[in-house]
From TrEMBL:
Compartments where located: Lysosome membrane
Keywords: Cobalamin, Cobalt, Developmental protein, Gastrulation, Lysosome, Membrane, Transmembrane, Transmembrane helix, Transport
Transmembrane feature ranges: 12-33, 45-66, 99-123, 143-163, 190-214, 306-325, 367-397, 409-429, 487-511
Listed name of the protein: Lysosomal cobalamin transport escort protein LMBD1
Pfam family, any one: LMBR1
Chief location bin: membrane
Amino acid sequence: MATPGAASAELVIGWCIFGLLLLAILAFCWIYVRKYQSRRESEVVSTITAIFSLAIALITSALLPVDIFLVSYMKNQNGTFKDWANANVSRQIEDTVLYGYYTLYSVILFCVFFWIPFVYFYYEEKDDDDTSKCTQIKTALKYTLGFVVICALLLLVGAFVPLNVPNNKNSTEWEKVKFLFEELGSSHGLAALSFSISSLTLIGMLAAITYTAYGMSALPLNLIKGTRSAAYERLENTEDIEEVEQHIQMIKSKSKDGRPLPARDKRALKQFEERLRTLKKRERHLEFIENSWWTKFCGALRPLKIIWGIFFILVALLFVISLFLSNLDKALHSAGIDSGFIIFGANLSNPLNMLLPLLQTVFPLDYILITIIIMYFIFTSMAGIRNIGIWFFWIRLYKIRRGRTRPQALLFLCMILLLIVLHTSYMIYSLAPQYVMYGSQNYLIETNITSDNHKGNSTLSVPKRCDADAPEDQCTVTRTYLFLHKFWFFSAAYYFGNWAFLVVFLIGLIVSCCKGKKSVIEGVDEDSDISDDEPSVYSV
């Protein structure tokens, strides 16, 4: 049994790690937003909103390992509760984590359904120079009201959809309504918030299928393949300039005697001149990048990028194999779609589910691994959004470019990441259900043993890993699990979403393997907002 001093030291270490993680999250959010936002269209309110939203997304993801740590910390490895972990203290810890989820999820609802839409529509109206600030605010509030109504409807539906039914079938309508309000009061609004968050998580699942699945293959392969040589691209660009200039000269030669050019030649001349301007713009950027010290520095780090790429592709394969085996286990051994494909324990072991219990023996390796997986999930999501851009069905709305991203695009980026982070908790649960539910908790079971010296049987208390068969008073379920599985139909949708995630990952892997190296100035041909006197290094 751990001594009180050692137990206190573990708790202090855990909170110190969480505090350092918060500081690292804030620093990362500031650097990331400042790195991608447009220098010419930078706005204070949109910048603060993007940093705050991104920080909330990362802090919410960091709450999962904290939740698992706290329920595990209350028990010793031999299955007994620690001396200080009586019923009241355990309830206080559970309530603290629950209130943490309440707070963060409420802030996410506020950001997704009010603040981010308001700031977005405000800056959309700001593009019109004739409108006043008062008109901008009124118009933004008018459009934002639609999002507020949707949020209110989700909360109402979640609050009054009963998870249990009255026992008396002959009850009156008033008794049924009274039962609904009693259910709402007993759950302290958990069902309403859970339904709203689960609805957003469903959207986050679609975003994860679109962006994260592709990013998990694109990010490592881009690191391994690298970018094309700036010197080689500049040579090709010079040849293209000479070819275009020859075409322009040929067309202009037709009008040397004063004859007007035909309409077809005028259109061709205009297209060639536009192409020439683009090529000369590329020439200036390529020259700047070729002579940049940053290019030389990144060239020296090329072996390190390859190593990171190999590491990331191995992590992706570990993630995908574990997710496939977990989903296959649900398909074979769960109670079916009516239960949301919920399965307790694991009949088919997957690599991640086997690795986490091994790391639990050395504090805090398992929490570090969970944190790394969550961060990897978020970074690959960011990579997928950067590579694909922000689309509305077949219409491309915005591109994410270093130093060129508009404020509205940053707001979209942060909203998408907020939704993806909500789905991250379920993805981790899919990979290691028993670990996410109970952490490293054990409970005691009575085992009959036969003694050679004494006739008869005796009982011995043996620790066993917490599972669905454990008594409720012996194992504490994480608050994350309560939010994840309040409604079975969401769990069923997440199950099918996992299969779609695997399919998109395989497609993205094939596409990423077939694609060649990226241009060192990828995006210059497409971005009309790139100024000629403001070159920058794009993806060196």
